Amino acid sequence: MNRNNENYTFLFVTLGLLTAFGPFVTDFYLPALPALADYFRSSASMAQMSLTTGMFGLAVGQVFIGPISDRYGRRMPLLVSMAAFIVATALCIVAPNIYLFNLLRLFQGFTAAGGIVLARSIATDMYTGNELTLFIAMISAVNGVAPVVAPVVGGMLLDFTSWKGTFVQLLLVGAALLVLCSQVRESLPVARRSARGVLSAFAAYGKVFRNPKYVAFLAAYASSMLVLFAYISASPFILQQGYGLSPLAFGLCFAANAVGIGVGCAVAGRFADSYRGLRIGGGASVFMAIVTAAALWMKAPIAVVEPAFFLLMFAFGMIQPAGTSIVLDCERDNAGAASAALGASGFLMGGIVSPLVGIGDVFVACGAAVLLGAVSTAGFIRYACRRWPAA
């Protein structure tokens, strides 16, 4: 696709919003977690479990939807996913108890996954190499808008409505995206689609995971998501309960840190060599993880912890565009499965780390998790880049 095409801007905005959909579904109601626990008269851990089930839904949904899109194209699965998301969100609003709510969050995450995996697949269908890295960097920057807007708006809404109001807003966002997606053209011609049946289409996962280069760079990407989700799941309790911030103030801090991700993505897009940008991002992530962990373990003032979080998210943002494009470039013939495994790995990491950072002292657990994630990320990046240097 030529960048001068009149549909370029529309495609860029639409795909950017779709990739932001997962973070938006996750982040929008973060300030409402305490209110959610009060409404259902449940423990904080049960309310936090809705975050975990949503992430698992986002992971599993991508695993299923990616190969289906390789067989039937991108457009129809995208429209079905968005329509189903609207239904799932409506059901969350009327859930009678926390147990059914958490189950419905799994369904909501599953349906939202379509937008995430298919946005990356559409981009991979249309771009290659550094052009793909640049496009992904651009939509990743748009992706940074969702975490900026979501918790701030969510926190503001809590002054006027209950947690249900935030889910009504999610439903409206889903409806708007469905309208936009109806205008997206099919990016995978029939001639390039998998000739296998639906069930056999899942055999594509065997192919992508037999590619050692794909697996190595995927491991680096997945490890980086440990850092992100440790921060996401722990920050409401660190900033609201630990430092006494209001939901709105927490949302503003969360938004500022999300800006760090967007700026990091934008900076990464300026590197002509994706591999070099990835290595620099990995090193920066380790350095900031050490600083952040030390600040948390010492329970430093918020004036120290908040800038540390910001710079940690900046380093995370530097890793994402290059890491994503290199992984997807490894398996262009199975872009749907490759994109699905990429997305699923991240949200699986989130589902695993979210409850763990709630064990014991959240300051200690969060610091340990971000440090483990950053060191693992840098180690995998170093190994993969040395074995498969840029051509």
UniProtKB/TrEMBL annotation:
Membrane topology: Multi-pass membrane protein
PROSITE patterns xrefs: MFS, SUGAR_TRANSPORT_1
Similarity annotation: Belongs to the major facilitator superfamily. Bcr/CmlA family.
Localization: Cell membrane
GO biological process: xenobiotic detoxification by transmembrane export across the plasma membrane
Protein name in UniProt: Bcr/CflA family drug resistance efflux transporter
InterPro entries in the record: Efflux_drug-R_Bcr/CmlA, MFS, MFS_dom, MFS_trans_sf, Sugar_transporter_CS
Gene3D superfamilies: Multidrug resistance protein D (1.20.1720.10)
Entries under Pfam families matching the protein: MFS_1 (PF07690)
GO cellular component: plasma membrane
